[in-house]
Amino acid sequence: xxxxxLIAAYETAQAGAINLVASENRMSxxxxxxxxxxxxxxxxxxxxxxxPATIWDYPNQEIPREIVGAAQDLACSVYGAMHAxxxxxxxxxxxxxxxxxxxxxxxxxxxxxxxxxxxxxxVVSENVRLHRFDLPYDLTTGQIDIDRTADLAKSExxxxxxxxxxxxxxxxxLEELRAAVGKDVIISYDASHTLGIIAGGQFQDxxxxxxxxxHGSTHKSLPGPQHGIIMDKMDAARAQPIYExxxxxSVSNAHLHHIAALGITLREMRDYGQDYARAVVDNARSLGxxxxxxxxxxxxxxxxxxxxxxxWGIVGDKSAAMRxxxxxxxxxxxxxxxxxxxxxxxxxxxxxxxxxxxxxxxxAIDRLAPLFADAxxxxxxxxxxxxxxxxxxxxxxxxxxxxxxxxPEVGAVT
Length: 414
Description:
Helix 2 crosses helix 12 (256-293) and helix 12 packs across helix 15. This protein has 16 helices and 15 strands. The protein folds into 2 domains: 16-25 and 272-394, Aspartate Aminotransferase, domain 1, CATH 3.90.1150; 29-266, Type I PLP-dependent aspartate aminotransferase-like (Major domain) (Aspartate Aminotransferase, domain 2, 3-Layer(aba) Sandwich), CATH 3.40.640. By secondary structure, it is α/β, with parallel strands linked by helices.
């Protein structure tokens, strides 16, 4: 089959599926138009004085630079940042930029893999020859152990704390963490997963609570393009070693079409983000509760399941989690099989951003949860379940919290 045919087949399959992958979302029509515009062919180069002297200028830069400036201004407004840089191409690129600003032999703390930390951090720290320590956690609450962190900071004297969890249910105790490590340690908050709900004021306000840097990918709970962003609340001298590593060490072509789409998405978050973020978190809690009612185990049920866009289902050993993942895939429900943080078990990471963008709420969740449980528990044949999932998915063809459709249908999201 030709590539065009494969794309058509893929989109047909997507129309009949429900995506609960926490790291995926859908852009608005306006943002998609930016991605498909002539900007896709063009470079954007910072003006003289804002770029290394070795980089020559490009023609036709007036409007591209205005687009970059507008996107960065929106980012600062939405997140309360002093500065923003939208040149990174992805969230996965940013650890190399930030950790690369440290000197070989420096010490930093990050979130351990068993507590939801991202796999990239340890690899980058080895390449840069840094000393990395896992942040101490209380495994029963899923929160950083502040007292043990303070003791570790006194003995190891970190230059930076890198909060890099990709599995995250609850906010970090940033004010307590700041007190534990001291005012001179840079706290770098990777919000790849939570930028969208942070923008809507439904998770936490990292830069106001003690973080120095806020950064991440822009296509998860934030429904933008696959790109990256770094923001800060630091004086220029402290921020410079980080930003100067972006161009040209990490980025040459900053993908102007994605920057434009990101700017449009940030404007949407400014205008509709509060309602969107509230619905995302409400849906995540409702999904956890509904799955629990169906007889499935859901992490942190005693703590209300989640304060974020994620919910974690606990299945058992790795083979059982992979079997559940495959059965759900056959049934048209997209998830991620994962090791469940703070446990020795495996399960499924579920996210509600995309279903929320489609206007789904508690009514849809009440229909979805039995189908989900039927697939995981083997109560019905997955091909039969797939038909019911397709019917549910096709009942929500729209896209909400955008200029095109600023609010979902009445009762769609509560």
